[in-house]
Design brief:
The structure is a homodimer. By secondary structure, chain A is α/β, with parallel strands linked by helices. Helices cover 44% and strands 15% of the residues of chain A. Chains A and B meet through helix 11, helix 12, helix 13 and helix 14 of A and helix 11, helix 12, helix 13 and helix 14 of B.
């Protein structure tokens, strides 16, 4: 049959057509009232999407740029920081903080695991043990695991009562739009997102919401940050501009995507964001039921809904499954990353996926498992049936209010 | 869940992204060498796509315009013509030939049926009975039925041996790209196609391949044809132009679509067209197995692969099913047309559909049938399983050579 190229990767995710059109049409100069209006609307939209009253900064960079900005602007060499890692992106926090000369305290868990609050408590002690910033992922994209940011934030806040001053910096690049956050209520000082995830536009934009405590920290001496100077961007944003040339077309696309999300929420962007979270949850539940019906194991202890990580049987390399998806269905799914390459594959749910996409990729998975790992009790339809039953229970569009 | 708007209608069909991009980029004047090159390439491509050595004419009109041109240019008032009808588009031939004052001989069969060769033989006799043109559909889009053009053509040719001079005019608007034709070998004098069908571009272009016998007929006095003057278009085409302003963007899109089909055929447009025919056949077989697994009846005696027409149980109106597809999945399927409105629904297979589209719409159908007509033995997965088994047997992309 014909094959349409489709992304089922946890970023980039499938592009929203309205965003594609807006990008193609974005033939404007960035120092004009035309663009200022789009830029300001986008910043305001991001605030609602994140669910914060903190100022939002939009950077022309990948998510890693925003991660770097939250190290460079908030620490100086020798500062003690705590990095929580249980996957490839946790390791990125480690590498970044080390590159900036921080004294890095590590809490490492194996891939697929999350952190116990006891272990975090030991690291922080009652007064933070001099830790000036805690770096963590909301959802670790390499394993699909969701970390308990709410509890971590509470634990960090407790140290403040005893004189601690640790900031909490959360990489929510695959977390935003798939996970509920109360950013201000929980006290997340920096939360980071990227354009190519739940927001359905291409890579190239990162965004951060920064608390007053974090802005205040930046007044202290810190590592050099020029392109990623957040205070400079904040000043420019107050005038409706960016400090350096913005990624005009991507911002126009992002603005259109936020419009789409608002429209899905009946004109309410926060409601639309919640629907997006619900959407990922239904797609995840369908995919998980399907994988389990095929006798496959889900990977990780507390999976988030950004993606489903499926462990492959020991006699199989996940690379073969990824290749079959591409070769026979032109569907791009992700292999494991870092230590888990070859051992799991990942199907994304964040962003612009609907029922037909989800049931379609499950049907393809059935054919691939039939070919590569045919379990003893295999029959066609077994995974699809499980997914159909999940959708019948929780996918009703009316229930979801779409 | 989110819903992506998807066409499953037998025209317009889903747009090919490469054609969309080409249309958006087509900012050229039509009397330039730039456009001439595109126009000539498109005409040559259409010749291969149709599979003919006859000259091809491209009109800025819907398919009905090309149908009208094959009446206006080939008949004069009082000419005896034979119209074969078993559906809404057969009735269009009747209306057109009557509008042009022909003496219309009708062979009508009920919707969903096709013609017996005996009945056609009676109409034509041994020498054509003075019939100057025979008008028929290759596939009747309103019912999904495929008429046996090869045998009809043979029957018409036989009358020529006894002094008959009937031309055979075939509306293959949903037939081209879903059905095999040997246009020149069978002796089809006019075969008509449209852009919004297997060719994956929006409506607005119709094309015809015209035999030398038909060109010769046009030298006789015939009804007025100004915009649809085929000889004038033929003359212009010989210079790489169209007589009137062409639909530039649509032609650029069509050119890109023909490139895509050639690419699918490994650089061979005819092979790509055959793959497209195979593609529709696999999608049709999956859909039919699924519908039957749900206890639904297929409509029509000799269904083609352009679409599947599914009869609904007597206590159900097909409009309700069409509405559910749209409301809950944003999938646009077609109701019955003409006499069959409310009694069947139609899912298209012609053009840009792949495995994921097909299994997706079948999954949606399961949910709709579960809700509206839940048969006694219903269980989720029953339709999907049937479709999966069909795909496993005949949908292997390697077997199809894609």
């Amino acid at each position: 049959m014909l094959k349409k190229n489709r992304l089922f990767t946890p970023g980039p995710t499938p592009l929203l057509p309205a965003a594609q059109t807006a990008m193609a049409a974005a033939n404007v100069h960035h120092r004009t009232a035309d663009f200022k209006a789009v830029f300001q609307k986008t910043l305001a939209g991001l605030k609602t999407f994140i669910g914060t009253n903190n100022d939002v900064i939009l950077l022309a960079s990948s998510g890693t740029g925003a991660m770097e900005s939250s190290v460079a602007n908030l620490t100086k060499p020798g500062d003690k920081v705590l990095v929580l890692t249980a996957g490839k992106f946790g390791e990125r926090w480690r590498d970044l903080t080390k590159a900036y000369g921080c004294q890095v305290e590590m809490l490492s868990e194996p891939y697929g695991q999350t952190f116990t609050m006891e272990a975090i408590g030991e690291k922080l002690g009652t007064n933070g043990n001099g830790i000036r910033a805690v770096y963590v992922q909301a959802t670790e994209s390499s394993t699909g695991v969701r970390h308990d940011v709410e509890t971590i934030a509470r634990r960090v806040r407790e140290t403040h009562l005893q004189g601690g001053d640790a900031l909490l910096v959360v990489d929510a690049i695959t977390g935003l739009g798939t996970t509920r956050f109360d950013v201000d209520g929980w006290g997340i000082d920096v939360i980071i997102g990227g354009s190519q995830k739940a927001l359905m536009v291409p890579p190239g934009l990162a965004y951060l919401a920064v608390s007053e405590r974090a802005w205040k920290r930046m007044e202290e001496p810190h590592s050099p940050a020029y392109y990623f100077d957040l205070r400079k961007e904040r000043k420019a944003a107050a005038k409706g501009e960016s400090a350096y040339t913005p990624a005009i077309a991507l911002i126009a696309g992002l603005c259109a995507a936020l419009d789409f999300i608002a429209q899905a929420g009946g004109g309410d962007l926060a409601a639309g964001r919640d629907l997006l979270i619900h959407n990922a949850a239904v797609a995840a539940a369908m995919t998980r039921a399907a994988a389990q019906a095929l006798g496959l194991s889900l990977y990780g202890t507390s999976p988030g809904d950004a993606l489903t990580a499926v462990a492959v049987p020991h006699n199989l390399n996940s690379g073969a499954i990824v290749k079959e998806f591409r070769q026979h269905f032109d569907a791009v799914v992700a292999d494991g990353q870092g230590d888990m390459k070859g051992q799991l594959f990942r199907i994304a749910h964040l962003g612009y996926f609907d029922y037909l996409d989800t049931i379609g990729i499950i049907g393809a998975l059935e054919h691939i498992i039939a070919k590569l790992a045919r379990p003893a009790n295999f029959q066609f339809g077994m995974a699809l049936q499980a997914a159909q039953e999940v959708y019948a229970r929780c996918g009703d569009p009316k229930a979801a209010g779409v």
